[in-house]
Amino acid sequence: MSTASPATERTTIVHVIGGLCLTVIRDAGELTLFALDMLVWLLTRRWRRSVLITCLYQIGVESIPVVLTTGAFIGMVMAVQSYDQLRYMHLETNLGAVINISLVKELGPVLAATMLAGRVGCAMAAELGTMKITEQIDALRVLGANPMHYLVVPRFVACVIMVPVLTLLADAAGVVGGWFFSTQVCGVDSHHYWTHTEEFINWFDVAGGIVKATFFGGAMALVSCQRGFACRAGAEGVGQAATQAFVYGFVAILALDFFLGILLNAIYPLMGLMSTGLN
Amino acid sequence: MVDTPAIIEFRGVHRRFGGQHVLRDVSFTIKRGESVAIIGESGCGKSVTLKLMIGLLNPSEGAVLLDNRPMEGRSEKELTSDRLRFGYVFQQAALFDSLTVADNVAFGLRQNTRMPESQIADIVRERLREVGLPESASAKKPAELSGGMRKRVGLARALALAPEIMLYDEPTTGLDPIMSDVINELILRVRERRPITNIVVTHDMVTVGRTVDRVIMLYPQPRLGADEPQIIFDGTPAEAFTAADPRVYQFVHGQAGERLLEMATR
Question: Do A188 and A93 contact (CB within 8 A), yes or no?
Fold first, then answer.
């Protein structure tokens, strides 16, 4: 007599996994089409300078305080965590190399981009989502403006320009923060601190971090704008778009970090920089 | 009498959103210079009809024709220039939050013309004056405006590019009776001053009685029988008020009839 109801059938693990796979494939497809459409507008039309300048200001200038603060704390936390380990091995003068290489290659780009995905990416998704549900995006079309050209291209360009710049600032703040804690609090000799830094870090490391940041900025902008354009009606829809912008953006940053890390490591020996320091 | 050519035509239009069938085999023609109201209950597809007319949505089946040519299949460039023939007053005005009132009104002119700023400023001033807004309002942001002011800025913005066809999406919804009358009066004045085609989507029968000379009534698709047409009325406002069809009569006179019971049991 007992037969499974349709409701029970829908909740099996196979359906859940299948549903998740379909969602991932659909979202990835939508994002790819969105990115291609954006690229066409990016390459074929003149950018709207006034909108771009506003985006550069909002994404770049307004993020400086928070990026500097984050960067400085990352540097200091690195010093706190690494000092004791290195001291046991009597290698505390290498603190500069450990902190700064981690900063410029990984932590600076990844944490600055993550923080910007939270500050800028969520705001972009919420703003575009609100514009969508209040018919402002339709109004743009009616008034002869393409939303992709008017809204997405300037945000993408601004992120691609400003995220690397902000990453450099985060790196600089982290370097200063790490140096300050290491030399003024832990008592590491400043001369040795910088000497070891110069021995271990080369320009390729710094450039690699900036290349990563450029990709992070582009990915963050695309994901956030696409989520905003796909926003569903109501306050819940806007909240969901903002949350998805951060989560998807963060995953994209980590995935890109992994693949770009492999790529940069493959290129590194070819550049003949294995033993060439900053000087 | 000269037969006026059709400017907009719906030919067997269906529109679905996922599994939801909003418009089913809808056909009608609007002639150049006509003033038409599209009425019907919430969710019957009035706003969707308006968006299909201007190419913001495509039909799932059938065709929407502008000047006897289907909208579907036109290039993005063609669609953009076609859309500029329309003025669209959105339900919630859809003003750009980040721009001032003046910049909102000037948006279409800056986007589509090479007019000098002084000329744009003159047009903005003239359009704002036409909808009864003081010059002091031009520097305000949309968030600082009342609902009626927002609607009027939306109207000024729609008029800035001198459209041939005006689309009004529920122009009096959410407004007090006085402001509703102001908007109705503006709709009439706009038509008096220009040789335009007016299409008003509304469920406000005062607006219908005052501003249009033809009424099309859509009925919600899920409540229709298999062979029933979705357009249940097409005639003058006077005919709508005395219609024999109880669905039309109840709607125009605001009588729920058995609907409450029907909704509770559905």
Answer: yes
The amino acid that residue B31 corresponds to is K
Q: What's the whole-model pTM score?
A: 0.85
Length of chain A, in residues: 279
A216 vs B76, more confident: A216
Contacts of B222 (CB under 8 A, 6+ apart): B21
Edge to edge, the sheet with strand B6-17 lists: B20-31, B6-17, B61-66, B69-70
ipTM of the complex: 0.89
Q: Where are the domains of chain A?
A: 31-268
Contact between A211 and A260 under an 8 Å Cβ cutoff? The reply is: yes
Token pair for A92: 């505390």
Check if the beta carbon of residue B94 is closer than 8 Å to that of residue A138: yes
**CA A37 to CA A23: how far, in whole Å?**
21
Out of A136, A141, A144, whose CB is closest to B96?
Answer: A136
Q: Are B152 and B131 in contact (CB under 8 A)?
A: yes
More confident residue, A168 or A275: A168
Q: Which amino acid is at A33?
A: L
Instruction: Tell whether A146 is within 8 A of chain B (Cβ).
Output: yes
Sign of the dihedral through C-alpha B72, B74, B75, B76: negative
Domain boundaries along the sequence of chain B: 1-85+197-266
A147/A131 Cα distance (integer angstroms):
10
End-to-end alpha-carbon separation of chain A, Å? 82
Choose from A91-95, A272-276, B20-24 the range with maximum mean pLDDT. B20-24
Interface touch A134/B94, C-beta < 8 Å: yes
A41 touches A149 (CB < 8 A): yes
B143 CB contacts (<8 Å, ≥6 apart)?
Answer: B97
Q: Which residues in chain B have their CB less than 8 angstroms from residue A130's CB?
A: 97
B88 has a chain A CB within 8 A of its CB: yes
Q: How many of the other CB atoms lie within 10 Å of CB of A246?
A: 20
Q: What angle do CA A219, A222, A225 make, to 5 degrees?
A: 145
B1-85+197-266: CATH, from 3.40.50.300, 3.30.70.260, 1.20.58.100, 3.40.920.10: 3.40.50.300
Q: How far is residue A42's CA from residue B243's CA, in Å, rounded to a whole number?
A: 55
